[in-house]
Amino acid sequence: MTPVFTYTKGMTENATSYCPGCTHGIANRIIMEVLDEMGMLGNTIGVGSIGCSVTIHQFMDIDMLESAHGRAPAVASGIRRAQPDKIVFTYQGDGDLSSIGTGEIVHAAHRGEKFTTFFINNAIYGMTGGQMAPTTLIGQKTTTSPEGRTVEQAGKPLRISEMLASIDGAAYIERCALDSPAHVRAAKRAVRKAFEVQLQGLGFGLVEFLSTCPSNWGLAPKDALVWLRENMIPYYPLGVIKEPEGLK
């Protein structure tokens, strides 16, 4: 009998804590698939953050650390400098990275720290109750913007990838989406490229994943994919934002 599903090597068989339809699980899987294909599962250290990914160490069967809220880049900087032969990555949501942790990610990029960040952007605070995030779109309703975000009250949504791409120490920045098979395949290629940038010591790398949050968006999983496609991608365009120089 041909199995319809097998666990990706590098992922545990623990049931995830993500809500039905959340695309965090897709991001987890493709990161582990790439590490497996590169033969690097036993040579990688991941740093989790506070948010929906707070239990990520239960799903990724590699060496993992948990950081304080927003501080994953600082922890990863120390690990990578102490263990320069390891692949090191952070896995952070938009509430973590683009709000309380903005200073840490900006200065890690500024220093050209040689680790990789995977940035999950679902335009809302997921774990803590669906509050407005720096990435929440104009007009989007959240528990702290029940009538919709406005420019006058909160400014425009922050485009983290474009901001980091302006920093000299950032070597590679790409934005992907997890709303379709084609986009997931492109995201997996970006993950591999980001790890190659790190292995070649070219500088800081970040892959942004546009992701869904059906529970806090108040949508069915399939409708959340459509909402991402129709609302997030126009404001957060996909593609390579900064190419690495000297990538072999």
Between the first and last Cα atoms, what is the distance in angstroms?
A: 42 Å
Widest β-sheet, arrangement of strands: 2-1-3-4-6-5-7
Q: Mind summarizing the main beta sheet?
A: 7 strands, mixed
Shape: globular
Mind explaining what this structure looks like?
By secondary structure, the chain is of the alpha/beta class. The model has no long low-confidence stretch (mean pLDDT 95). Helices cover 36% and strands 17% of the residues. A seven-stranded mixed beta sheet has the order 2-1-3-4-6-5-7, sandwiched between helices. It is globular, with a radius of gyration of 17 Å. The longest helix has 19 residues, at 181-199. The protein has helices at residues 24-37, 72-82, 94-100, 102-111, 151-154, 160-165, 181-199, 214-217, 221-235, and strands at 44-48, 63-66, 87-93, 116-121, 170-177, 204-210, 239-242. Helix 1 (24-37) crosses helix 7 (181-199). Strand 5, helix 7 (181-199) and strand 6 form a beta-alpha-beta unit. It has nine helices and seven strands. The protein has a single domain (24-242), classed as Rossmann fold, CATH 3.40.50.
